[in-house]
Amino acid sequence: MSHKVNESCRHPLFDELPDSAFIRESQLVLDPKRPQYPAPLPFSAATLWRKVAAGTFPRPVKLSTRVTAWRVAEVRGFLQDPVEGLL
What we know:
Elements: E1 22-23, H1 25-28, H2 45-54, E2 61-64, E3 67-71, H3 72-80
Antiparallel strand pairs: 1-3, 2-3
């Protein structure tokens, strides 16, 4: 018996997440291999990390040794005002 994963349930829509939630890189940026999944940021993963290093995007939080994520509230603040969202 094979089980199919419902791919549409893998990534909840960004707008539906509470501000207290965390979001991973794969949910923030478009994946060229999976263009059907919407992403709130209009740039690549490499650009995301360049912006983090430059201090122009919120820093992620280490949830465990292998899990890094961003606070949804901070990402929303950035999207509303890319300059003021970091203050």
